[in-house]
Amino acid sequence: MEAAAASRLNTRDLTYIAACAALLAVCSWISIPTVVPFTLQTLGVFLTLGLLGGKRGTLAILAFILMAAIGLPVLSGFSGGLGIVLGSTGGYLLGFLLTGLVVWCAERFWGNRLPVLAVSLVVGLALCYAFGTAWFMVVYARTEGPIGLAAAYGWCVAPFLIPDAVKLVLALTLIPRLRRHVK
Length: 183
What we know:
Distance between the termini: 23 Å
Helix content: over 70%
Number of helices: 8
Strand content: under 5%
Largest sheet: 2 strands, antiparallel
CATH architecture: Orthogonal Bundle
CATH class: Mainly Alpha
Strand order of the largest sheet: 1-2
């Protein structure tokens, strides 16, 4: 009975989850104009998982995805809707859940130290890229015709490797400073 009570979310947990789901929306709205524009969405994912941990962070990501799915304008360009979540790039959104699950599992086995978080975020992002690219290839093939892995990688992953690495370093720099404010 005590284990069941310990696994429940309290009001503070729900507040942090909601706040980080909102953080993900704000980070999705911020677009950095480059040759291939990118948002700060992955920075929001990294911060959410680093501050809330794997369990609460994954729930915040899930809440964010559900808000997008029901049509709230929480995605890039103030968009949302099931069509976008299930569209060609929706696999990357769903892949954020994989990143959260990797962090959650890593915490259970190795604790929530910063080096464990860093490795689990890199592994989770790699899984997100893999899942999102596979999803993209399937959805794109249904609408536009078959696409090769190299082309999908070139369009959907390669342009984001350096920006995501910068966001990861930024998040890992901010997380220790911000963790003391999150209980």
